[in-house]
Specification:
The chain is an alpha/beta fold. The chain contains 19 helices and 36 strands.
Length: 760
């Protein structure tokens, strides 16, 4: 029976259906498709022929628009993205080659000093010339790039690597001439966005090309691999040399994010991954996550599926953990590096002195004159109902003129808009109180400072204690040596709700007030009314932390070309540190106490130690497939990741046996002891070494390791061990979790893995 007749029979069985269409990412069986469409020249031809046949036999062609093919995928996955009616989708579902259809998801976007904070130094270690000569290509999937920025100029670069298969696509205000020997590729993907939006890209407010109209992509690309640029600053703040983590990298950009409300779509994202794999990138940096926050099961996560195909080809994937802290982490597939965000030791202090003599340190990116002692107003003393939010028509010019206004933050009205409104009614300055203790600094051109929760409470108490409260603000510019790192309150946290047997995030990296390249067409506040223009801007988010790790991974790949993506990941995780520059446990700003592995993962990245980790927890791609088998994935779900793999009929692997560099152990009421297996590979020098285990037991848990001594005789040798976790008592903490660590220690190395116990 021909495929055309088969479609006709299927369509004949379908009753009238809704004409509402939506975009799906459809996986098809490659071998069956080739059998059904032998005359097609390529995968695109197969899918076009298939969709044409469906449209031809539609029973209600006038009411139902024809299927609209957006993308064909033949590398990251085998399938296509198309806008389909329910009737069309049902037709495809009944085809023999059909695997699964996943609805397209909306996604969203989640430095002068940070490289110094990470221990990178010009001419030494990983920044020695010998480690910077090889060509490493970082692919940045984001909002595009501003190619004229000095961070992306190609002075001193040799020819583009011969292995590169990418292209520089032309579009609005962008041509192939915008690429060079530094920026070697630029593409853009918009079909999923336009399908979700229902219209074309608005070219008056965006560029239908790789050119960046948002700033996010330019910032991330320069953080990962931007050039050394001297005299970089934000109006004199954070002055110094800007540098990407692997500043001699080649950069390829893939624009997938546009304007709200559609923003980014997963079908565009998968198309970008598919193309990046073909083009030949070594690292993919993607500061994007599910618009709903959190994570979906891997069989519903098209990004994770596409990235897995890249992992199979040796590409390292770094993704942001999300900015929904303290809500749950996103991008949790085990083959992804999931990056949280933390502070560096640089700050921009503003000193708030209340009239009663109390002094507090806040933060400000304002670089103008300080404010002498002025009257301070808030809420009823500043205007009408809701005046505490400083939104239009709430403040009284008579009450706020020449005074400092306290403005609480509110969704839908950002700090720049609040500052502009206060300025317009005659206010002299603003204090932004924050419920967190370490607030972010905002790019204000008006005297403004953010203060933490202790200061917020003190301000309110002071305002209620006197009829004439006053305050002064002193702006101190840039300060170094502050306590760091500290976990950012916004950084998304575990537990990993997709699987409690896997700890996410993996580690943390600098992500607060990061200075990096910025398009010359966009103001630092990203507001239309802001007429300022800067070469560098300060941003915060796990979006900023992710490209740090992407660039650091590129450094490790330069040093260790033989390492797999899992080996690179293991090296960074097992050498991460958990004590700050004061020698105390890294603080979590959200609650003020020590950060747990749910926030910090394995710890803060230490790239110098990661270059020589001693031992590695390596994972071959097929081991991830066996991990999915241990999750009881069906054959059709496994096919989303590899159509040539079949789960064994009997498997002894449990999810926790994946050779991951951390331990996440979920206990139910019946379990008493759970045992995991691990294999470590010796990459240390000298190659002959003995490691002894050191365990910090989680509260209420006994941990036993067999053997407790590992003796290596040669480089590359692999040794196995088992670790058993036994409950001493059933429930130990209010949140049902406890934490510890397991460290293999030799004369030279300490290879550490966090332990997380969760009671379910």
């Amino acid at each position: 029976m021909t495929s055309l007749v088969l479609v006709a029979l299927i369509m004949a069985t379908i009753s009238a259906a809704s004409v509402d269409s939506r975009t799906y990412i459809v996986h098809m069986d490659e071998s069956k498709m080739k059998t059904s469409y032998p005359s097609a020249a390529n995968s695109k031809g197969m899918f076009e022929e298939m969709l044409d046949s469906i449209s031809q036999f539609s029973t209600d062609s006038e009411a139902t628009p024809p299927p609209r093919l957006l993308y064909t995928y033949d590398t990251a996955i085998f399938g296509f993205a198309a806008k389909l009616s329910p009737m069309h989708l049902e037709s495809i579902r009944k085809m023999d080659a059909f695997v699964v259809a996943i609805p397209d998801r909306s996604m969203r976007l989640h430095t002068t000093h940070s490289y110094q904070f990470l221990g990178l130094e010009q001419g030494r270690g990983l920044w020695h010339a010998s480690n910077l000569e090889s060509d490493v290509i970082i692919g940045v999937i984001d909002t595009g790039i501003w190619p004229e920025h000095p961070s992306f100029q190609d002075h001193g670069f040799g020819p583009v690597p011969a292995r590169w298969k990418g292209a520089c696509e032309s579009g609005t205000n962008f041509s192939s001439l915008n690429c060079n020997r530094k920026l070697i590729g630029a593409r853009y993907f918009f079909k999923g966005y336009e399908a979700a939006l229902g219209r074309s890209v608005n070219e008056t407010t965006n560029f239908k090309s790789p050119r960046d109209r948002n700033g996010h992509g330019t910032h991330c690309a320069s953080t990962a691999g931007g050039n050394l640029v001297h005299n970089a600053s934000f109006y004199g703040l954070a002055n110094g040399v800007a540098a990407g983590m692997r500043y001699t990298s080649r950069i390829a950009v893939y624009k997938v994010c546009w304007e709200a409300p559609a923003g980014c779509t997963e079908s565009d994202q998968v198309a970008a991954i598919d193309q990046a794999i073909k083009d030949g990138v070594d690292v993919v940096s993607m500061s994007i996550g599910n618009a709903r926050g959190g994570a979906d099961p891997y069989f519903k996560d098209s990004t994770a599926q596409a990235a897995f195909r890249g992992i199979q080809r040796g590409i390292f994937f770094s993704l942001s953990a999300g900015n929904e802290g303290p809500r749950t982490v996103g991008n949790t597939a085990p083959w992804l590096m999931t990056v949280a965000a933390s502070y560096i030791d640089r700050s921009f202090p503003a000193i708030l002195k209340l009239g009663n003599g109390q002094i507090f340190e806040g933060f400000s990116l304002y670089s103008g004159k300080s404010l002498k002692e002025l009257q301070i107003v808030y809420g009823p003393t500043a205007g009408k109902k809701f005046a505490q939010y400083c939104v239009p028509k709430t403040l009284s010019p008579k009450l706020v003129k020449g005074k400092v206004v306290v403005c609480e933050q509110i969704r839908g009205f950002d700090t720049y808009q609040q500052a502009e409104y206060v300025k317009s009614v005659g206010g002299a300055g603003i204090i932004f109180p924050d419920t967190g203790e370490i607030p972010n600094a905002y790019p204000s051109m008006f005297p403004a400072a953010s203060v933490g929760d202790v200061a917020r409470k003190a301000i309110i108490s002071y305002l209620n204690s006197t009829k004439s409260p006053t305050a002064s603000l002193t702006f101190k510019g840039t300060a170094y040596g502050k306590r760091a790192p500290m976990m950012a309150a916004f950084s998304s946290r575990g537990p990993n709700l997709v699987g409690l047997d896997l700890l996410k995030p993996d580690l943390t990296a600098p992500g607060v007030n990061i200075l990096a390249a910025w398009p010359s067409i966009i103001s630092p506040s990203e507001e239309e009314g802001d007429k300022r223009r800067v070469r560098f801007n300060l941003l915060s988010g796990t979006s900023m932390a992710c490209p740090h790790v992407s660039g650091l991974a590129a450094l490790l790949i330069s040093r260790h070309k033989e390492w797999s993506p899992a080996a690179v990941k293991s090296a960074m995780m097992t050498t991460a540190y958990n004590l700050d520059n004061r020698g105390s446990p890294i603080k979590d700003v959200y609650h003020g106490g020590p950060a747990t592995p749910f926030a910090i993962g394995s710890g803060h990245v230490d790239i110098q130690k990661a270059s020589d980790p001693g031992l590695l927890y390596d994972i071959h791609p097929h081991e991830y497939l066996h991990y999915l088998c241990s999750l009881n994935y069906s054959p059709s779900q496994i096919a989303l990741f590899d159509q040539n793999f079949t789960c064994p009929k009997k498997t002894t692997m449990q999810p926790g046996d994946l050779n991951y560099p951390s331990f996440a152990v979920p206990f139910n009421s019946d379990a008493v002891t759970i045992t995991y297996r691990r294999t470590v590979t010796n990459v240390g020098n000298p190659p002959v070494a003995t490691y002894k285990v050191q365990v910090k037991e989680p509260i209420g848990i006994s941990v036993r390791v067999k053997p407790n001594i590992l003796s290596f005789k040669m480089h590359g040798q692999k040794l196995q061990y088992k670790v058993s976790f036994t409950v001493k008592r059933p429930f130990i903490e209010s949140d049902g979790s406890s934490f510890g660590s397991l460290t293999w220690v030799s004369e030279k190395y300490a290879v550490r893995s966090p332990i997380v116990i969760t009671y379910i």
